[in-house]
Specification:
This protein is of the alpha/beta class. It has three domains: 5-73 and 120-200 and 306-374, FAD/NAD(P)-binding domain (3-Layer(bba) Sandwich), CATH 3.50.50.60; 203-301, D-Amino Acid Oxidase, Chain A, domain 2 (2-Layer Sandwich); 384-446, no CATH class. 34% of the residues lie in helices and 26% in strands. The chain has helices at 15-24, 60-69, 73-79, 120-132, 187-193, 219-222, 266-273, 279-287, 334-351, 356-382, 393-407, 411-421, 433-446, and strands spanning 5-11, 28-35, 83-85, 92-96, 99-100, 115-117, 137-141, 143-150, 156-163, 169-173, 176-179, 201-216, 227-230, 238-244, 249-256, 289-305, 317-319, 325-326. An eight-stranded mixed sheet has the order 5-4-13-14-15-12-16-18, with helices on both faces. It has a five-stranded parallel sheet with strand order 7-2-1-11-17. Helix 9 (334-351) runs antiparallel to helix 10, helix 10 crosses helix 11 and helix 11 packs across helix 12 (411-421). This is Epoxidase LasC.
């Protein structure tokens, strides 16, 4: 790779920041990764990643990208205890809407739907360890980013950081600064202070409440299953996810949409889930050993900051990950989107075509747009918080219900749906005439057409 500059700074060392640092290390002599938290050596929870206390997953496309950026990482995760699903749909229970996904058949293209299941702290620790071994990457933890520095032309030339232990202020020069600080990123405020317009925001309310508990469940108590997922319904706006992680640990997450109020204790969460989840799961949960305290969180709205539509943006600055767009966490898309943006960044840096921010934001928007539309459409089928109140819900629900019903009876339809969910295929693949005919045939065969 060619050298594009002396130093790049990445603000934030969660998954987006780690992947950005990995990519930038191929193009800059030095990469400084700045993180306000003290970073642990092992798989520990930390304040800056509250989502790690809840259900997290790598979609198959995200796993593939991580394997490309860090050769051998996926095998390393499995050797260290992470679970992996490879052409074993019978080992998961998935109920989409009113229909259980067909788990009886083998996939036609199993290699594209291999799913790795490390917990978020476990995954972060392994990726962080890999990043630490990159010779030209320096991790500066326990340091907060104060603000970007600029020259007279308002080009970003670095960042001021502060040691959170001593209060010492340091100016770091850089050719590129990347904001990977998540939903709380301050770039819109920085732009305001520099005389630029803020990006416009697209938002739609979700009002998601979720409560999670880590558990220890020996394999003898749960059989061969490695995961359970039951989605909400309009008349029951609550769902549940339980997934096997490393070393007999599981995560249980109960979530309610449209402001649905959840119980605040483990027994209440299990009692709520028992009203609609498989008895096998409930029996295992009642006998499980809780690990740590329960965590609860509220996600008010999905937000997309449209940096791609800004007419002016300072040179020397980029924004990535949740700092651009935050997705409903129920869909498990955040880490995979961060991985795809890392690949887009690599392509943009390799092109040497000028105006890096414009090209990168355009590439990121192309990745985000179909996912944003699909999420909003799906969220509306359960709760009309999504802003389409004038559209009769039955009009939106009908095609989704038919697809879910077909996926319950036809392994090929189930595979097609999963390929879209895991970013292997674009959503419009489900609108092809051949697929729609398959839906009709599967529903007629099952008597649901």
């Amino acid at each position: 790779m060619s050298n594009l500059g002396q130093r790049a700074i990445v603000c934030g060392a969660s998954m987006t920041g780690l992947l950005a640092a990995r990519v930038l290390s191929d193009f800059y002599e030095e990469v400084t990764l700045v993180e306000r938290d003290p970073l642990p050596e092992g798989p520990e929870q930390r304040r800056g990643v509250p989502q790690a206390r809840h259900f997290h997953a790598l979609l198959s496309t995200g796993s593939r990208v991580l394997g490309e950026l860090f050769p051998g990482l996926l095998d390393e995760l499995v050797s260290a205890g992470a679970k992996v699903l490879a052409n074993e749909s019978s080992r998961i229970y998935v109920r989409l809407g009113r229909h259980e996904l067909d788990g009886s058949g083998k996939f036609a293209d199993p290699a594209s739907l291999v799913v790795y299941q490390p917990s978020r702290p476990f995954l972060d620790s392994h990726v962080r360890r890999r990043v630490r071994t990159i010779e030209n990457v320096r991790i500066l933890d326990s340091h907060g980013v104060v603000e970007p520095m600029t020259d007279r032309a308002r080009r970003v030339t670095g960042a001021r950081v502060v040691d959170r232990h001593t209060g010492a202020d340091t100016a770091l020069d850089a050719d590129l600064v990347v904001d990977a600080m998540g939903r709380s990123a301050h770039t819109p405020t920085y732009l305001d202070n520099l005389g630029y317009e803020r990006p416009t925001e697209q938002r739609y309310p979700v009002h998601l409440n979720y409560a999670s508990q880590f558990l220890r469940i020996p394999a003898s108590m749960i059989g061969e299953k490695l995961g359970f997922s039951v989605s909400p319904l309009p008349e029951r706006p609550v769902g549940v996810v339980a997934v096997a992680y490393e070393h007999d640990t599981w995560i249980l997450t109960l979530f309610g949409v449209g402001g649905y109020k959840l119980p605040h204790d483990l027994s209440g969460v299990i009692d709520c889930a028992a009203q609609f989840a498989p008895p096998t799961l409930i029996a295992a949960l009642r006998s499980a050993e809780p690990l740590g305290a329960m965590s609860a969180q509220h996600y008010p709205a999905s937000t997309w900051r449209r940096y791609d539509k800004m007419r002016r943006f300072p040179a020397g600055l980029l924004v990535m990950g949740d700092a651009i767009c935050s997705f409903n966490p129920v869909y498990m898309q955040g880490m995979t989107m961060a991985a795809l943006q890392a690949v887009a960044l690599r392509h943009c840096l390799a092109d040497h075509d000028g105006d890096l921010s414009r090209r990168f934001f355009k590439a990121a928007a192309k990745q985000i747009a179909p996912v944003w539309r699909g999420n909003r459409f799906t969220d509306f089928t359960v709760s009309q918080e999504g802003g389409w109140r004038r559209v009769p819900r039955r009009v939106v629900n009908w095609p989704i219900d038919k697809a879910q019903a077909a996926a319950a009876n036809d392994p090929a339809v189930a595979e097609a749906v999963l390929r879209v969910m895991h970013f292997v295929d674009p959503p419009d693949r489900l609108m092809r005439p051949s697929f729609l005919m398959r839906l009709v045939t599967a529903n007629r065969r099952a008597g649901t057409g």
